[in-house]
Amino acid sequence: MSETRVRLRHLQCFLTVAQHRGVCRAAAALSVTQPALSKTLRELEHALGVQLFDRERTGMTLTRFGEIFLQHAAASIASLRHGVDSVRMARSKGCFGVAVGVLPNVAALIMPTAVHRFKQEAPATNVKVVSGDNSRLMDLLRMGEIELVVGRLAQREQMIGLTFEHLYSERLTAVVRPGHPLAPPAQFEPASMGMYPFVIPYRDTTIRHEVDRFLIAQGIAMPANIVETTVIAFSRGYIQFDAIWFAPRGAVESEVREGRLIELPIDNRMMEGPVGLTTRATVAPTPAAQLMIDVVRKVCRAAAGLDNNPLDMQPAGNTMPRHPRPRVRHATRKTSTKAR
Question: Is there a cis peptide before residue 190, judged by omega within 30 degrees of 0?
């Protein structure tokens, strides 16, 4: 290693470039010039004696060395942030806070109850709920800007330095507007789904793979007319144009129950995935975060254990997630995914 010391600015630069996958966006996020950021990144690579990023036309991706360093750099920043927050909390006489990342399938169902119960036990503790897709939330989690994520298991490459606790399994469903040509009492044939536009998750996401498996198993060709999104508000509006929306059951449960959306009678057993808690593998949760984790566990278990539960949820012990890596830990056992 070079005698050049690795400083805090090097870590911030590296993590921001890794998050935004490019110097231009990272420089804007840090409010610095691109040449200054590139120089800082070169200093870090020189100090470590390795190349941390592959520079490609479409952006910058982590090398094997970059993935290894990401785990430790993120843990260092998160630990420092926790130290600063602890001092601030002590000065404010115990006014603690917790930041939670949530995916759409749990934002409307699990989290309101979880936050309500959390506030009953810690009414003076500030709760920050951040929504987004898995990629963004995992980046925020690694950098210590949020302390846990509640949602579906992320892709393997997004789980570097993180650990997942499986709480229950949830299936995707296909919904349409009331009065859609495929809605009851019309006679439904799965093959006829390809005649209508699809609203589906982004390519290369876990839930998109589940949709793809279902279509292949049913012999349904992906229509040319598709929209890729995980934005709930947009999807609710777009299905008014006869689109079929593939969504997590938890994201549409209230609309289905109230008759504002109609579920198609499909065999959705192939569109099942694990839902649970994602945390950093090398950083212990703060007391406030641990309380939130405990509350979320209780709420999820209670919901999954209900008779005829509306979400078609399965408790963690009943079904095994179909993901060989990263390893999944259950409530009584913790494992972590580490860079290789």
Answer: no
Q: Lowest mean pLDDT: which of 39-43, 105-109, 139-143, 173-177?
A: 105-109
Please compute, for residue 244, the number of CA atoms within 13 A of its CA located in the half-sphere on the CB side: 25
Q: Are strands 97-102 and 59-62 parallel, antiparallel or unpaired?
A: unpaired
Tens digit of pLDDT for each residue in 70-120?
Answer: 878 877 777 777 666 666 655 554 456 899 999 877 877 789 999 999 999
* Cα–Cα–Cα angle for 86, 89, 92, rounded to 5 degrees: 155
Domains defined along the chain, listed by start: 1-93 (1.10.10.10), 170-272 (3.40.190.10)
Pick from 94, 73, 76, 75: nearest CA to 85: 94
The three-class DSSP label of residue 126 is strand
pLDDT at 198 over 90: yes
Extract the tokens encoding 281: 């593998």
| CA quadruple 22, 24, 25, 26: dihedral sign | positive
Instruction: Report the alpha-carbon distance of residue 160 to residue 157 in Å, rounded.
Output: 6
Half-sphere exposure of 205 (CA within 13 A, CB side): 19
